[in-house]
Amino acid sequence: MKAAQIAVVLFGPEGKGSFNESGLAGAERARALGHEVAVHWVEPVSTDERARALRAICATSSPDLLVAHGGQGDLPVAAVHGEFPGTQFAITQGGFTGFNTASVEVLQEQSAFLAGVLAGLATTSGVVGHLSGEKVRPGLKGRAAFAHGLRASGRPCRFLTLFCGGQHDPELAYRAASALQRAGADLVFAMIDGGRAGVSQACREGPMKQIGNVLDWVARDPEVFVASAVADSGRCVTSAIDDFVHGRLTPGSHRAVGLESPDAVRLVMAPSWETRFGSEIESFRNRLLKGDLSLQTEYDGEEFDWQDAQIGAS
User: Fold this and answer.
1) 147 and 99, same structural domain?
2) At 169, which CATH number?
3) Spatial distance between the Cα atoms of 189 and 184, rounded to a whole number of angstroms
């Protein structure tokens, strides 16, 4: 029997960003399982350009399965999936489904909520920042959950949240993070990808510490990171491929994995923070798992006008 032809699409510059690193690792795990997987990097950021790239991949290679990694895939897949009824699509961290499209995600919002609780408990300035790039579904849900956790900590805090407009621009992320720091933030939850180096640079230049996401950033850079809201989305890539090959990926379905699978979703803390705050974080984790706490995934508060703050500081 001919092996299934599988395409994995990563949105962003090749080799940049932890989110895409996670997705690439997921594709490589699928290859190790014996599946034939072609990886495609799509750098343009507009929906139309991304849709054209997906259309070209489908037209030239006719994959049996195309996995679009990240919520950035929602709109492009929605635009093209109907043109290729012979291809099945899967979106990781997205929400779109269709007659030939499924969605698989790890619940970043659960670890983001715990990160918000931690930030509320730990901030000394009383000002906490959130920084992301594009306003896509996973980022919006993560921001809302982080804000909810901050409130749930029980400490009054000023919350400064912004989307700088790009996931992979270190200079842009540096300017945005610096604006948060000048506004008094001593902690920033950065849901950013290739631009993370700019956030870390701003943290190194001042007293602000960073909470990462997707991967364990505490282990990678303990000088800058005090915690990381792990949500290993690359596992969705592997499972979507393996499920498809074995007939378990159902079009129109949406499947999610959360804190009940700590290898995929968890909050990692620096050892000293684990000692200080670990028991309270575990209490909130248990409440989420038991269903005693209803997570908020929409945010209707103000956003920090970091561009005006930047002009005012110049």
Assistant:
1) no
2) 3.40.50.2300
3) 14
